[in-house]
Design goal:
Length: about 325
Amino acid sequence: MSRVVHVGAAQLGPISADESRADVVERLIALLRDGATIGCDLVVFPELALTTFFPRWYTDSFDGHDHYYEREMPGPQTQPLFDEAARLNVGFCLGYAELTPQGERFNAYLLVDKRGVAVGKYRKVHIPGHDSDEPWRPFQHLERRYFQESPEGFPVFRAFDGIVGMALCNDRRWSETYRVLGLQAAELILIGYNTPLHYAPDPDQNALQGFHNHLVMQAGAYQNGTWIVGVAKGGIEEGVESLSQTAIISPSGQIVAQTITSGDVLVSARCDLDLCSRYKDTLFDFARYRRPEAYRLITERKGAIAPPQRNKQGAS
Ligand code: CDV
């Protein structure tokens, strides 16, 4: 019996700063229904899917954006999404800003099954950007002010008849993300993102945003024999244009579905999880071919250290 999960990648267009949670949840429910209509088992929403991307603004106090965070999930405003998922018998994955009872702030991703029950949670590991105001930028990227780095790593969950992992935005650029999930036999990796097209520290990268987005996810899929669903919140949000190009990628590294517009839209693919073994059991048979003893630096060293300079005589 094949294990086919019909996955919908539910891209969002911009969410304005004054858009209410109720209005956003209505948009999510519309996409959930689109997925249900075509028989999706799982609908994947992007990173921070309930609000505008608030780290683009500095507030004097770091709790100045607290109204963008969820203190409970589901809460009164998000409960309708859970109820509709259960009614439609469709699971979903939702990105949101989490404020814990202990006052911790995480960039979170929640996996919910077809009964509307949470079955897995991920908190973003790689927090990009900066933590203090940098007025030279046309807009800020203050994730390091408003979120803390998760100490929990990259867990996987048995759900949707397979092994599911999650990651958020900047995580997708790091090969370690995929390999840590691959080493737990992940067959489906869900990744939500908000990627502004303008990268202030090196604007030469602006034109390459779409290329880099697919480059890293396609490599991650192939090198770990896994499906990857990368879902954008794109378009021009509060004057900042972000990348769309939501994609579903097979274990071969090929894109099997992709959005071609930048608004709210769902693309889908029937993901045969048994295809993963075609790569996991051959070229990327980890147990047979990997050499962890040769990779020790990956966990022992954080930043790159160049070897000593050689002098003219060739001695170091
Ligand atoms: N939300 C993100 O994590 N965005 C980052 C920044 C650096 C643009 C990204 O890697 O896309």
